[in-house]
Structure formats: C-alpha cells, structure tokens
Write a structure and sequence with these properties.
By secondary structure, this protein is α+β, with helices and mostly antiparallel strands. It folds into four domains: about 220 residues, 4-Layer Sandwich (Glutamine Phosphoribosylpyrophosphate, subunit 1, domain 1); about 200 residues, 3-Layer(aba) Sandwich (Rossmann fold); about 110 residues, no CATH class; about 60 residues, no CATH class. Helix content is about 40%, strand content about 15%. It has a six-stranded antiparallel sheet with strand order 2-3-1-9-8-10. A six-stranded antiparallel sheet has the order 4-5-6-7-11-12, with helices on one face. The longest helix is centred in the middle third of the chain and has 18 residues.
C-alpha cells in the first residue's frame, strides 16, 4: 500500500521538486519503504508525480515508483493491490508483453498500455492510480469499484489538476486552501462523516468509486466503469445460494492472503471476522496471526469469543489491552491520523498500531459483512417502514406535518424523532435512508450550528445508485438489497472505508477487506433479501458458508466494535475533551452557535438520555482536526 500525489497543468510550481518532496513527506507514513518522484516539463502542460511505497508484493527495488514504460510514454503512480495480477500477467504474456518484475504495479501499467481504460474490468482488488501520457499530455486517474482506496483531486483555476491519496497532502502542497466547505460541514453533522464526492475542504473532491477521470486539453471528464448491481433476484433456495456464495467467498479470502510479508486478521469474535479466519486457515499451513482489542470495561470486551475462534482454528492469537489511561495518552495521535474528521475510526487506529508493532504489514478485516449480508436491524426496519411511509404520504398535509414536527419536540427520544421523519419521508428510499443514518436530526443541527449551516439540506448528499428508486418502486428490487446498495454507496464508503484507510495507514499497515470483493458483491446482491434474514441467527447466509464456526459465535447477540467512550469521556479523557470542546479555537471556528457546544457537553456529563458519546465525539473530532490542520471556515 502506498501514498500518491500528482499535478498536471500550467502551474509548474505544483510539479516542482520542492513540492514533490513536500508531498512525499506528507505521505511518508503511508509508504516508509521507498520514495520516488517524476517530472515532465517538456511541454506547456507540465506533470509531476510522487510516490511513497509500502512494500507488499515484490520487495525488491523493481517495485520502485513512479514507473515509466521503456518507450518513455506512460508513467504510473499507484496505490493498492490487484489481487489477480498473476492471472493478468499470464494473459498479457501470452499476447507478447514482457515483464522485468513480479510486482502488480507493472501489471497495472502494461494492462493499461495494452487495453486502455478497459483494463479496469479485469482488475480484482483495491486501487487508486494515475497514469501520465507524455505523448498526449493527458492524465488518467482510476479508483476501485467500492472506493476502498482513496483518491482526492482539486481543479485549479488555471485548468490544471492536483490529486493525492490524502486531503492533507493537497493542503500541504498548496494545491488547495485551508478552508472548510460549508455544505460538507452540514453533511458531517448530519451523518458523522462528509458525504462524498465532497470533502471537508472547499474545492477538494474524491473521485467516486468505480470511476475514472481524464484531464485532457484542460478539460476534466468523469466516466463510470462499474456500478452496484440492482438486478431482480432469482427464485432460488437458501441452500442453492449457500453453494453459490461459498466458493466465491473462499476465493476472495485466498486472494487477499497473497503477500510477500506477514499477514494477520483483525478478530473481534463476531461473525464477519470469524468467517475470514475459518477460510484463511488450512490444515498444515502456518498459523494465522489474529488480533483482538480488550478493555478494562468488560461489557465492551469480545475477548472470550475471539479467543474461542482462535483456539478452534489454531491461530497465533494476541489480545491487545487498551486501558483508559493509555487511550488518554494517545488520543491526540488518533486525531492527527484522521485525514478528514469522523465520528468513527479510533478503534481501527489502536488495533492497527498493535498489529504493526507485532511485525505485520497486512491485516484482513471483516469490514462490509453487515452491509452486504444484512447484519443490522436497520434492514428490517427500512423494509417495513417504506410501504407505511408511502401510505402516509396519501394522508392530509396536516398529518404529515405533525409527524415531521416530532423532530422539534423537546426531550423526545431520538428514535421517536427519526420515526416521525421516516414516516413523513413519502417513502422515498434516499430520504428514509438519510433519516436512519442521521447523527444529528435536522432540529438538533439547527440548535447546534450557525443559521447557515444548521438549515443546509444535508440529505442532498445521499448517493443513490442509478435506477434504485424506480426498481424499488416497481418491485424489481427488494428493500433488503436496496438498503445494502445504499449502505455500500454511503455509510461504508464515507465512514468505514475512509476511516479504515486513514487509521491503518497512519501505522503503515495495509488493511484488506475480502467481504467487499466485487465478484462477491455482484453475487450476494442478486440473492433475495428474505434469504439473508432469519429469526434464529444473524447473517444466516454468511454463517452457513462457514459451518465450522463455534456455536457461541453463531448464536451470540450482535455487538459492534466500540471503544468505552461513554466512560472514558467522563473520566480519563474528560480533560482532553474539555480542552477541545470549550476552547477559544472551537468557538472561533464559525461553525457552532454561541454556548451550544458547552450545553451539549454539560448535558452529556449529566448523563441525559439523548446526548450520546458519538455526538460529543463528532464535535471534538471536527474541532480537533481543524486545530491540528489549521483549518476554519
């Protein structure tokens, strides 16, 4: 895994050796094993590329980047892994292409030279890369189908374009100004993360997953090469689907164990990570390294379940204990690691740190299992609420207004507020989804944020796959699969994957996510939603694919991987929290109403029922990130 930066355009300063070195320093944590840069100033359009390398495949100098073809025409800077690169290499070799390394970078570059943009349909993996065409003076960017690897860009007034793996690198190089985006701030407080393709910084966007970008003659063209499947699911049986899903799942795990460095697994003891362990262990093979975080607060600990899974499959297991006083000492580092503020992600920071300190460079994560295999209660709720909301839409306006007004009722439970908003949503899937995923309701945002930010329609940021509304309304798409598609396009992309990348790469650790293999997604989203739900167990389709799972893992109640923030914020982290929340820098951000943050904090300290630690943390994360990166409105 790596860090990349580049610029193409008329502003030679943004491709200067000094700026390329600044980019390398900014991205050093992502790739401490090697660094490199490339400049082409032979025409009016100049190009500069920078790269920092985390060596995973082919540890030799042959993996150095940026890499240029022998004829000097194409140069690539690449972040990620194409897990089926051996098969693609063999196909290219049959067509007469020669290689001088065994790294997947050379495969990606020569596949592009051979097949152009069509090469992307052959890649199975996670990636973000840029290729400079010196003859055409054109720049080509591509990002993987799910957005596992980040790629941000900003268009310059001169028509040029700068890009990078991280928002902070575009700030460090001067390619963008240190100014918050107002719509993004509103989106952040609506959902706990900024909705892509926007970023928290005005003028910086992310390349959407499954898209390419081409800069040619000063014009930027975006094209989509993959989309989430929304096909009608066939009338198959549960057993048929288990037989179809299992080999794809096994293959997805197998491919992600390929590396020239040690590989481990984040093992929570839940179903998703336990399934990965079940498929990753083979008789006679070396034991898999597994990692679990434990706390003094036992109700947050999943250690017994993880230990049983590790014992069952003969893993080399390590429990990483994280006491509150250690978290207090290291919380500043976690905030500094965020590339954008987030209400989540700190858990990944600590487990990644432990894995890297144990000598691992790669870890597998069960990320995506809930979103793909219907692991949340939201799935059932969404399916039941939509038809009710459509029926209520036929009620008189006064009734719908009364339901919507529940959001502003003092001391009303958040569940009641959301239910009112959901039933008033007219059954539109994006509006209903936005209600379910809300961090702060609209009325809460109005109380917390300035007039301009509090009234911004943050729900506009929901990404809806093309055709979802129409196919859902016509019955071609069932609501369970519709909710999965919305989760993959929003919460997973904007929060889980973004945080996982930033927090793991802060420790130079590559995280691989087999449950987000696009071949697996294309299959599971074509399984009827009813087959993914069961009153007897959670995620029955995934569980059935790994029948050797311990019974206590299969039968346990769902438990998210959450740090004991509710206790820590009132104890060892209280001083740190108050230093941020009540500081003059937070008051002067121009984001919050006078006194609103302090009132919310006091409400949290009094343990008032509807002031959760996640809402408090989202404020602290934004304010701390802005202070660390010298950013404000």
């Amino acid at each position: 895994m790596c860090g990349i930066y580049g610029y193409a355009g008329l502003e030679a300063a943004l491709a200067s050796p000094e700026v390329l070195q600044t980019a390398i320093q900014s991205l050093w944590h992502r790739g401490p094993d090697d660094r490199g840069s490339f400049r082409d100033a032979s025409g009016t359009i100049v190009c500069g590329l920078a790269h920092t390398r985390l060596s995973i495949i082919d540890l030799s100098p042959a993996g150095h980047q940026p890499r240029t073809t022998s004829d000097g025409r194409y140069t690539i800077t690449y972040n990620g892994e194409v897990f089926n690169h051996v098969e693609i290499r063999e196909q290219l070799a049959r067509e007469g292409v020669t290689f001088d390394s065994v790294c997947d970078t050379e495969v990606v570059l020569k596949a592009y030279v051979r097949w152009g943009r069509d090469c992307l349909s052959r890649f199975r993996g996670m990636f973000a890369f840029a290729i400079w065409d010196a003859r055409e003076r054109a720049l080509f960017l591509a990002r993987d189908r799910l957005g596992i690897k980040p790629l941000y860009y900003t268009q310059r007034p001169s028509g040029g374009l700068a890009f990078s793996s991280e928002v902070r690198t575009l700030l460090a190089t001067g390619a963008a100004e240190r100014r918050l985006s107002r719509p993004a701030v509103a989106s952040y407080f609506a959902f706990g993360a900024v909705s892509g393709p926007s970023s928290i910084i005005d003028g910086i966007n992310s390349l959407p997953p499954g898209h390419t970008l081409e800069l040619r003659d000063g014009r930027v063209t975006l094209r989509r090469y993959w989309e989430i499947p929304l096909d009608r699911a066939p009338q198959s049986t549960f057993d048929d689907e288990v037989r179809a899903v299992t080999p794809i799942l096994k293959d997805a795990v197998r491919l992600r164990l390929i590396a020239d460095v040690p590989v481990g697994i984040f093992l929570s003891g839940g179903i998703d990570s336990s399934v990965l362990v079940a498929f990753a262990t083979e008789p006679g093979a070396a034991p898999i390294h597994t990692f679990t975080v434990t706390f003094d607060e036992e109700r947050f600990s999943e250690a017994p379940f993880a230990a049983e899974v590790a014992r069952r499959y003969g893993c080399t297991h390590r429990q990483v204990h994280l006491p509150a006083n250690q978290a207090a000492r290291e919380i500043d580092g976690a905030v500094r690691a965020l590339d954008q503020p987030s209400s989540d992600g700190v858990n990944t920071y600590f487990v990644s740190k432990a894995a890297r300190e144990a000598g691992l460079a790669v870890a597998l994560s069960g990320l995506g299992g809930d979103e793909l295999f219907a692991g949340y209660g939201y799935f059932r709720f969404f399916a039941r609420a939509l038809p009710i909301a459509r029926a209520i839409n036929r009620f008189p306006p006064i009734v719908r207004a009364a339901l919507a007004g529940l959001d502003g009722v003092a001391l009303a439970p958040n569940q009641l507020r959301k239910l009112g908003a959901l039933l008033a949503s007219a059954g539109q899937p994006d509006a209903a989804y936005a209600v379910l995923r809300a961090m702060f309701t609209l009325d809460q945002r109005r109380q917390l944020l300035t007039d301009e930010l509090g009234t911004h329609v943050a729900y506009d940021g929901i990404t809806v796959p093309d055709g979802l509304r129409e196919r859902l309304a016509s019955g071609e798409l069932d609501p369970i699969n519709a909710f999965s598609a919305l989760e993959l396009s929003n919460y997973l992309k904007n929060t889980l994957l973004r945080d996982s990348d930033a927090m793991s790469m802060a420790h130079s650790l590559e995280v691989r996510v087999p449950l987000l293999d696009h071949v697996l997604i294309e299959k599971v989203l074509r399984v009827r939603g009813a087959l993914k739900l069961s009153d007897a167990e959670n995620k029955p389709l995934l569980v059935a694919a790994a029948p050797s799972l311990p019974r206590q893992v299969r039968d346990r109640a769902k438990m998210g991987f959450t740090l004991p923030f509710d206790t820590w914020f009132r104890g060892p982290l209280r001083g740190w929290m108050e230093d941020i929340l009540l500081s003059s820098s937070t008051r002067e951000l121009g984001v919050f109403r006078p006194g609103a943050v302090e009132r919310l904090w006091r409400s949290f300290l009094r343990s008032e029922r509807y002031t959760s630690h996640s809402r408090i943390w989202s404020i602290a994360a934004l304010a701390g990130w802005c202070r660390t990166n010298n950013v404000r409105l």
